Prior knowledge:
Shape: globular
CATH topology of the largest domain: Aspartate Aminotransferase, domain 2
Strand order of the largest sheet: 2-8-7-6-5-3-4
Bound molecules: pyridoxal-5'-phosphate, (2S)-2-amino-4-(2-amino-3-hydroxyphenyl)-4-oxobutanoic acid
CATH superfamily of the largest domain: Type I PLP-dependent aspartate aminotransferase-like (Major domain)
Amino acid sequence: MSDTATTPSSPDTLRARAAELDAAHASTDRRDAFLLPEGVIYLDGNSLGALSVAARDATANAVSRQWGEQLIRAWNESSWWSAPERVGDRIAELVGAPAGSVVVGDSTTVSLYKAVHSAARLRPGRSVVLTDPDSFPTDVHVTRGVCDQLGLTLELVSPGDAVARLDGSDDVALASYSQVDYRTGELWDLAAITSAAHDAGALACWDLCHSAGVVEVGLTAGGADFAVGCGYKYLSGGPGAPAFIFVAPEHIAAFTNPILGWNGHATPFAMSPEHVPADGITRARVGTPPVLGIAALEGALTAYDGLDVADVRRRSLSLTAFFVECLDGLGIDLPVVTPRDESRGSQVSLRHPDAYAVVQALIARGVIGDFREPDIVRLGFAPLYLSHADVLAAAVHLRDVVDGREFERAEFATRAAVT
Ligand SMILES: Cc1ncc(COP(=O)(O)O)c(C=O)c1O
Ligand SMILES: Nc1c(O)cccc1C(=O)C[C@H](N)C(=O)O
């Protein structure tokens, strides 16, 4: 969705507006809970969330006290064994799901494999799985892999066309989509697509990587059957943080984990060679959980204590709307690909023919965002630790990089391995 600049505003007007908005959203300001380097405006919390004091301390405690002193007793004394369900319950609150329907442990990719595989098998006799060709690639890869394994057909249908594809159909087993597009930031209608899937006798699975913690996901309200999401983006669980899987309570008894491991067993310490799935969401577990990663994630989630996700969402919408207001006000004439209405997640993506170099020039100024192929400057606004004043400062840097053609400097052209 492209827009051009409108009436410019003076920096003073924008500064006053930032102060007014920060005061209005003071109750959701958790900046003090996070440890960001001085001079950095961090607009990449949608890829790797910032470190919080609580995540750092929880990790140090898990390493030094639990592992270092309790040693193997920590499985019981520090409740390591039940951490996947305990932290799952905390995430469930953030994504509108009941206790006992979410568990953490594997990567997003593995969690998605478990969800898609199990969901597709719940609709025998149906041959098609729908997913978005523009999904984050791992989602397309996993879904294709499951289809190959189960003899199903993968049909690549944009979420915008999913309801029409499902309408009146009887061949679809599963519609599997991301709630927020990782590149454009578009927010898709989880309830509408899920309901269209159900009307067609199909199930719906959602990837919440770019919505958990910043959008009122509403899994139960929207009728979602399965969902997954990662722990390291807005939830700030740290690099490689464990992901989560949601299975709607009505499907748990029929959920067949495609990876039968001992942690999903009803009596793991009976050491039986027969696999008897555990009751409840525990059957979605596989092997030994990443205890240190779960400790960091559990610490990070305390940043949400006392907050209502609806208020976090309001702050997020205000930050992203204000960024677009700053683009307009400062005369930054780059096409905005993220919807200007509220059908967006917590990012603003812009197009620029030299997007990679623009992002590098911003990083050199301490404004950390990222580049996504082919020409996207992607700026994520993690609401808990960003202010409207940060947003204005970032926009001023962007204007200076673009207007001053700073991105043309040779040092910004070289691509790093990880972008
Ligand atoms: C929508 C989406 N799904 C999945 C992933 C990643 O999966 P994994 O955590 O397994 O690397 C990402 C980002 O890396 C993502 O944006
Ligand atoms: N998971 C990542 C990684 O291990 C290295 C670099 C980036 C990532 C990401 O999370 C990318 C992210 N999902 C995206 O939306 O582009």
